[in-house]
User: Fold this.
Amino acid sequence: MKRILPLLLLLSACTPQGWTAREREIIAGPKVMNVLVMPQDSVFLRSQSKDLGPKELASEELQILLEKMLATVQDPSQDGVGIAAPQVGVGRRIVCVQRFDKEGEPFEAYVNIRIDSLSGPTICGPEGCLSVPGMRGIVPRSSAVHLSYLTPDGTPRQEKVEGFSAIIFQHECDHLDGILYTDRADSLFVR
Assistant:
């Protein structure tokens, strides 16, 4: 029994235990969330994001967070085409992306998202980022991505996305792994 107890404690420490107090505080904050920026928030922006567990997926906090992330990215002061949870101080694998490949170009939320593979020709194009204000860069990206994710209601999905939306997904998913577009850029310039 003495050997089993430390193992149980270790396993419970690795199991998602719900939202942290800091995450709850951020989620309870204003409708338009504070966007973390470089270089002052570099430690957090360079961190790996965690998956949401069943407890978080079923929570009211997730729905509130998604609504606030959408309000933030669509706010005229931001005017972005995508946002990742780490950009608002929540280290979870959540992104909101404007789908230019769908009618009406809706913003949609994706939970526990992963890029399974990249395909198609590489396209070099300009990128900017809400977390790197005042800068732009020319970034090589694949023209298609194969994604696995959960919808906000927890339904698992896989999808292939092409074109500009694929580029947005790559940019936002990089945030979940602590990567900024500046790390991939062939060149950078002041906007």
Remarks:
- Residues 147 and 159 are 5 Å apart (CA to CA).
- The domain at 34-190 is CATH 3.90.45.10 (Peptide Deformylase).
- Strands lie at 82-84, 94-98, 107-127, 135-150, 156-162, 187-190.
- Helices lie at 4-14, 21-27, 42-45, 54-57, 60-74, 164-176, 181-184.
